[in-house]
Fold:
Amino acid sequence: MTTIRLKPKKEENVLRFHPWIFSGAIQSIDGRPHEGDLVRIVSHDGSFLAIGHYQIGSIMVRILSFEDVPIDRAFWQRRIRAAYTLRRAISLADTPHTNAFRLIHGEGDNLPGLVVDIYGSTAVMQAHSVGMHTVRQTLAELLIEEVDGLRNVYYKSEGTLPFKADIEPHDGYLIGNASDCIAVENGLRFHADWLGGQKTGFFIDQRENRALLERYANGRSVLNMFCYTGGFSLYAMRGGAALVHSVDSSAKAIELTDRNISMNFGSDPRHTSFTADAFSFLNDIKDSYDLIILDPPAFAKHRDALHNALQGYRRINAKAFSQIRPGGILFTFSCSQAVTREQFRLAVFSAAAQSGRSVRILHQLTQPADHPVNIYHPEGEYLKGLVLYVE
Structure:
């Protein structure tokens, strides 16, 4: 196994159990590792620090263990079992009203570079590192062994693996083959399109925030921007909204939203969908809505795009503030990991000041418990949300 030696004093982050080692911390590499290989990390004086997956880029090692243990089948089994134990402890596994949850959330479950979402009897696996890609079959077999009722594992990593890696990943079933792609969340049913949809097919991370919105929807006129599968729209409908308008620039997303509405509510006349650009749609809504959801895709996927992302959050929120009805409620989110909670709040506050409206915070939102944040890896807190009352 290749040994990577760190520069003096660069072991401090590792000793604080941060799971990434950046290229600037490396003094020497004893050997020529390939991307995805296991490597040993030692301090400048040769003391053992960690074992991890080597990769090319700014983050050169994703740490798997801070103990000198074999990274073998038993290691992967222990990590998967620990993740499953957590989901059962928080009553997400084995519940009749919800069959969709995140089983493995990368660094939050001490498995950096790996995401696994469960939809009933199917697990959808995404590798974000070549190291996880190389052990995908072993992981799939262990998932079937460890998770009750699981029969299928679909691998969906063509769009998530590093583009510089010298591999040609293909999406497809590693085990089994599912025909029923229905996710159940708090009793509502959704088509989860893991074959051709975004992420693993459904945005599980908004489950608790959607349930909160249901409590505010009764009698309100609701606008769900960037609706994708229509998740917030369905909760608003069940919550007794007077009308619900779903907007997305993707015709495929609108088709999926309409299918989900029909599956749960039939041809309910309260719902209308629009294929339109969000910024253009918000230009002239006047005071048509008193509950607006802004849940855009990540405006900043990396720090180089941070300035433009913050401008985007200011613009979209300013449009909503300027036109929402008095007494309206705004649910606004950022899923950009590069944007901190403080930066997002400042962007929203700036938009509120620009509108001249009186605005109060009702809730500060984040990702649910099946998307845990490793306390030593605060970067894992990617989802930020605010619920605001606009006078």
